[in-house]
């Protein structure tokens, strides 16, 4: 047996590969971190392009383990496999709503906080009730809390997801389709889901300033969203040329390193007055 984390014993059994052992160690450390509520949130600005107004913040999970940040692309799937998503989601939602209520106090304009919710959680028993309780306890305004759900997630169990989305909207909680355009949804399915907005995946923006075909594609995706009446947030804006194109195409909201990197909660208040858009 090998010690790992605070007080967790990971047992090594014959036939286990090194990779499996490492995965097992990381999983056990993550379990301890979730129990101790040490997975934290960073917040990245979502900016209204014409005004520089901060329209919202996306909450992104952060886990520091043995002096390093483990990427969420690694620990979120690990949490899923370890059965930790329910506890982690509840914890992060609570933290996000506490911050949201604090930042919104005394502010006239609506501030939104977007929280990523794994597919398994959206349709988990009790999820909508948990969210209803959060909204009530924190006195959140309608539309202030937005849940981001990936396409793959929403369409895995369409009926259950649709029911959850309808109930969430009734509570005044927004639902945004994350990674829009990456590939799972048919337009018919999209049409059936009462969404509040879509987030265009950053892969659509990656080469728009160098490849005219990519720019036309982005244009088409933006037009489609506009036609069906869905506000768009464009993700992954890193260069001024991408920003200028988005503006020219009439995109209203964007997010990306050029506009602001994810920051810890204590660094958010100065952003609330708006962002200087390049
Ligand atoms: P996502 O929801 O698509 O989040 C956007 C990711 O793009 C974030 O990565 C963000 O830091 C990064 N990003 C933002 N602007 C830029 C940019 O200009 N350029 C580039 N290259 N990247 C940019 P992050 O924080 O590493 O998160 C990765 C993914 O992990 C997220 O993708 C989301 O799917 C998942 N995730 C993060 N936090 C949570 C969470 O609390 N719950 C769940 N279920 N998933 C989460
Ligand atoms: Ca997201
Ligand atoms: Ca995304
Ligand atoms: Ca993504």
UniProtKB/TrEMBL annotation:
Signal peptide: none annotated. It comes from the Bacteria. Residues 23-276 form the EAL domain. This is Diguanylate cyclase (GGDEF) domain-containing protein. It comes from Klenkia brasiliensis.
């Amino acid at each position: 047996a090998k010690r790992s984390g605070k007080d967790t014993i990971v047992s090594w059994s014959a036939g286990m590969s090194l990779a499996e052992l490492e995965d097992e160690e990381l999983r056990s450390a993550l379990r301890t971190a979730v129990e101790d509520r040490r997975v934290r949130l960073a917040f990245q600005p979502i900016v209204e392009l014409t005004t520089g107004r901060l329209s919202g913040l996306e909450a992104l999970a952060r886990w520091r383990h043995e002096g390093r940040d483990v990427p969420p692309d690694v620990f979120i799937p690990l949490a899923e496999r370890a059965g930790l998503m329910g506890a982690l989601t509840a914890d992060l939602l609570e933290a996000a709503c506490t911050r949201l209520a604090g930042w919104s106090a005394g502010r006239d304009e609506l501030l939104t906080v977007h929280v990523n919710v794994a597919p398994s959680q959206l349709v988990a028993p009790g999820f909508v009730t948990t969210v209803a309780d959060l909204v009530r306890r924190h006195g959140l305004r309608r539309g202030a809390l937005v849940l981001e759900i990936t396409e793959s997630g929403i369409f895995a169990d369409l009926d259950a997801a649709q029911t959850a989305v309808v109930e969430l909207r009734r509570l005044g909680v927004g639902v945004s389709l994350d990674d829009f355009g990456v590939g799972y949804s048919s337009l018919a399915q999209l049409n059936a889901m009462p969404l509040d907005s879509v987030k265009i995946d950053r892969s659509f923006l990656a080469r728009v300033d160098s490849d005219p075909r990519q720019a036309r594609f982005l244009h088409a995706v933006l037009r489609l969203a506009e036609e069906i009446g869905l506000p768009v947030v464009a993700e992954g804006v890193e260069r001024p040329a991408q920003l200028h194109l988005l503006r020219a195409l009439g995109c209203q909201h964007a997010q990306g390193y050029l506009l602001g990197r994810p920051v810890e909660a204590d660094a958010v208040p100065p952003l609330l007055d708006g962002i200087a858009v390049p």
